[in-house]
Each structure stands twice: as C-alpha cells, then as structure tokens.
Design a protein that fits this description.
Layout (H helix, E strand, L loop, with lengths): L11 H4 L25 E6 L14 H10 L4 E3 L6 E3 L2 E6 L5 E6 L13 H13 L12 E8 L2 E6 L6 H4 L17 H4 L9 E7 L3 E6 L13 E6 L3 H9 L5 E2 L7 H5 L4 E16 L9 H10 L2 H8 L5 E2 L22 H10 L6 E8 L3 H15 L3 E8 L1 H9 L5 E6 L7 H8 L7 H5 L3 H12 L3 H18 L2 E14 L2 E2 L15 E2 L2
Parallel strand pairs: 1-10, 1-11, 14-15, 14-16
Antiparallel strand pairs: 2-3, 4-5, 5-7, 6-7, 8-9, 9-10, 11-17, 12-16, 12-17, 13-17, 18-19
Helix pairs in contact: 8-10, 13-15, 15-16
Length: about 525
C-alpha cells in the first residue's frame, strides 16, 4: 500500500466506526514487497463507457474513476476509509465559531502542463463546483459563503453556518483542483482534455470502446506513477471480461459476476479478490409515474423482496441484506432503521390499501450483459407476481441504461451507490433532497420532514446529536420506501498476478499511481 504524505486529519466520529459490513466476503491484496517495476500499460475492462470528464456535473462512476487519476482534491480518504488525510493541502485550522477554515497548500505541486498550483486555482475550482448548484455537485458546497486566496499557498473558506462535513466535502472529486479560469479555455473546451495535478494525463477517448490516460511527468510524488499508461476498455458482457482476464488480454476485470468468483479464484495466474465497501444495491421507484407515487405500492414491493435469498442466489453469500438508507460502513448507520424485510402477508396488505389493489403491470430497467442484475430481476419478477404485480424486464446496454436513468425514462430501475467521502451527507443529500443534484437519486422523492432532518444533520457539529438526526432520517425513509433496499456487498475484482499494488478503498476509489506490473 502506498505511503501517505503529511499528518493524518482524523474525522473523530468516522474513526470510531468499523467499516465493511460484509463479513461473508474475504478481502484481497495485490501489494508486493518487491521493487516496483516501471513502465507498461494497465488495461482495465468494465461494462460501460465514460460519459464526460466534467467533475462538477458528472454522476457516473465510470467517468469518476478516470477523472480521479487526472484531477486531485485537497484532502484524500485513507486506505481504510475511516479518515481524511492531507493531499494537495498539508493542514487546516478552524476558527472558534467554526465558520472559517484556513488551509495550507502543499508547495511545489504542478499541473500536468507544468504550471504551478496556487491558491487562485483552488479558489476557482471550489467556486466552479459551488456554482453548479442542483445541476451538479454544487449542493455539496452549499454552506460555503466565500473562498479567499490569502496568498499563493493559503486559502480561507468562510461558511454561512457551521458545517460538519466540510473537510470531507473538500475530498470529493467535484472539488478537485483545476487551473484558474480553465487555463484560458471555456469549460466545454477544458473538459475535452482536462488538466490536473494527478498522476496521469488525459490521452484519448474512442467512444463506446476505450479511454486512455498517460503518465504525468510533472507529478508531485517523486518516482510515481510507475505505469506509462492506463486504458479502460468497454466490454459489456461479464463472461467476455472473464475470458479476457483469464486469457491475459486484459489486466483487470473490474466487475466480474459473483457466479464466476469461485472459478476465477482457482484459475492459475489470476487474483480474484474482494474489498470491504460502502456499496448498496437498490431498486429506485420513479415517483413521477403512477402508481409509484403511492407509498403503499412502494411498501408492497419492498416487503415482497426476499433479500436473504437474493444474497445467496446473486452474491453467493458474499454480502448481507440491506435494511437502511446507509450501509454499515457509513458513519451513523443505524441497524434499527426499520428497512423492509421479506413478509408476503405485509406486502399483500399494503397492496390492498393501495391505488392498485388488483395489481398492475410495470417494467424494471436493468443493464444487459450483467448476470447479477439479470438474477435480481428474475427473482423480483417471481416475487412480485405473488402479490399481483406483473413485472417486465427491460435490458439496455450499460451506457444507454445510465442515460435512461438520467433522463428519468423508467418506472423501476436497478441502481447502486457507494460513498465517495467518509460522511453520510453526500449520499443523504443526493438521495433525499430534490435539490441535491439528482432529484432524490432519480426517484423524485420529496418529503419536507426528511429534507429538514438532513439539513439539521449537516449543520450539527455534536456527533451524538448528529447520530440522532440520522437515525430519524433512516427510520422515516424506510417508512416511505422511496427505494427498495436490496443488499450490501463488497467490491469484487479479478486481475492477473502480474498486477501489483492495486487496492480499493471502502469508498470505491483506487490509486493507480501505486500500481505496477511485473513481467
């Protein structure tokens, strides 16, 4: 694992909580004690293409994993996901009234184009993120009143009110640092080939096929990255990715299906590993479309799902049934949140109270070429039939699937979430606040009481009081059943044994500057 630089910035509450709620999953490591080999290209195959490199407006994980290699934030989550550590910043201090943060920047950092990173770049980057508002990730900076470049290496952030997750928010990819005024380009021009301080530089993009980044010769961590380049290829079919990694045509399969994990583990020359996560799979209901604006319909479907059976059938035991909006690895997770458990009697009772007591026909949107989602859909299809709901299954290729969800062109859809910061605010604001950048996780859920609880939790500095607010939030969202929680699962990857240093944090991000390949 890479050696981190600078003193550790602890998040008191987060540090006290255990991560990784998936006890059934083993964890893997690809680290090596040998001298890193320099050079070579790493090829990672995954199901879907990137959408764009605009870090302030993009909600797509495949795009995010690429942009994180190019653009870096002031703070970074630690390897275990429990703390925040200085990255482009070295330290910070907070005023007694908790309204002013003074941040010292790391000296000697250059952008990939060779220009020095200064406080003016930091101010511009945070301001641009904030300006996106509800159209992007700007909601994450809602408490920021003013960012000031005090001198080239010092920034102050003044808040409108105390804001517990500020340092965590500054570790989010949307607050990554880019050149002031986009280096003289328009936003649209800049993001066709973004410039940052990261270990890699934008290379090329063949839409629908692959995206490539190359080594940054000006990277501030001496001697890194080890690789010359990284290529992500688009391979929608899980079995094809499996065959490619087994045949050494690719180095990493970033989403092998669970049914193939056992065979991959016994394949010579392959490391099939799982990493503790903060991931939850769920079904999102589009409340813009009847009858999903009816809470009884949503509750009925939630009660009809046998999550324990799904964990066995889909995850092959590598996970646990989801019972809350938050995952066990997220601060303030409440195991008593009241999420629906399998109960056909309650499901039928909820249907009887609903606007469709005699049942109806609907459609679930899933990704094509994904055995895990196909299994989820088939299990749900049988379970919903038992309560009078005929569920058709619509399969779209992964990229088209994401675009359909973004356009709200669905009735029910499979989705998943993994945290990007060690604070629940990112997900709760994204999920329950209509102004949180995604129309409440694309559900259009709107409960003023829940929105108020979320707002109070953001501003509450006392950890005990914050915990109580998040407990109430989890309980109410469970009652409203705006999402049907499915399960919590670890991340799973398959890679050739020549890949070394590849680690995934519980927040899903990885540091490719630490990765190398042996002959």
């Amino acid at each position: 694992m890479k050696k981190r630089l600078g003193a550790v910035v602890a998040i008191a509450v987060t540090a006290a909580l255990a991560l990784g709620g998936c006890s059934a999953a083993s964890t893997g490591s690809t680290s090596s004690s040998g001298t890193p080999t320099k050079g070579g290209n790493l090829t990672i195959a995954r199901s879907a293409d990137i959408i764009s490199m605009n870090n302030t407006t993009n909600f797509d994980n495949n795009s995010i994993r690429v942009m994180e290699q190019i653009m870096e934030p002031l703070f970074m989550v630690s390897a275990d996901g429990k703390k925040l550590e200085p990255w482009l910043a070295t330290k910070y201090t907070v005023s007694k009234d908790n309204l002013t943060y003074t941040i010292d920047l790391r000296k000697g950092v250059k952008f990939s184009n060779g220009s020095p990173m200064t406080a003016a770049d930091v101010k511009f980057s945070i301001d641009q993120d904030t300006a996106t508002g509800s159209a992007g990730w700007g909601f994450i900076n809602t408490a920021i009143d003013k960012v000031t470049a005090v001198d080239d290496s010092t920034v102050t952030i003044q808040l409108k009110y105390p804001w517990a997750p500020l340092i965590a928010d500054l570790s989010l990819f949307s607050n990554a640092i880019v050149p002031n005024n986009y280096g003289g380009k328009t936003s649209a021009e800049f993001y066709t080939a973004p410039v940052g301080t990261g270990p890699f530089v934008w290379g090329s993009w063949t839409k629908g096929q692959s995206v490539k980044v190359t080594k940054n010769p000006n990277y501030w961590q001496a001697g890194k990255p080890y690789l010359n380049s990284v290529t992500w290829t688009v391979v929608p079919d899980a079995n094809t990715r499996k065959l490619q990694v087994q045949g050494k045509q690719i180095d990493v399969d970033d989403t092998p299906d669970w049914s193939s994990l056992a065979s991959l583990k016994t394949t010579p020359g392959i490391n099939a590993v799982t990493f503790p996560s903060t991931q939850m799979d769920y079904i999102v209901f589009n409340e813009q479309k009847a009858p999903f604006n009816d809470v009884h319909i949503r509750q009925a479907i939630s009660y009809a799902i046998d999550r324990e059976a799904m964990v066995k059938a889909v995850l092959f035991g590598n996970g646990s049934a989801a019972n809350s909006l938050l995952a066990p690895g997220v601060p303030y997770y409440d195991k008593n949140a009241g999420g629906a458990t399998y109960d056909v009697k309650k499901a039928k009772a909820a249907m009887a109270q609903s606007s469709k007591p005699n049942g109806f026909t609907t459609t679930l949107l899933i990704r094509s070429g994904d055995p895990n989602q196909t299994s989820i859909a088939q299990i749900m299809q049988a379970e919903l039939k038992a309560i009078g709901i005929t569920m058709n299954i619509q399969q779209l290729d992964p990229t088209a699937n994401k675009q359909a969800r973004l356009a709200s062109n669905f009735e029910m859809a499979w989705s998943s979430w993994t945290m990007d910061i060690p604070d629940p605010d990112e997900w709760t604001s994204f999920a329950v606040d209509p102004n949180g950048g995604s129309h409440s996780a694309f559900s259009y859920y709107n409960n003023p009481a829940v929105i108020s609880l979320n707002s109070q939790a953001q501003k509450e500095i006392d950890p005990t009081k914050r915990a109580d607010l998040y407990a109430q939030l989890q309980e109410q969202t469970s009652k409203d059943a705006f999402l049907a929680y499915l399960f919590y699962s670890p991340y799973v990857y398959a890679m050739t044994t020549s890949v070394k240093g590849f680690q995934v944090t519980p927040l899903g991000n990885y540091h490719l500057e630490d990765v190398y390949k042996t002959p």
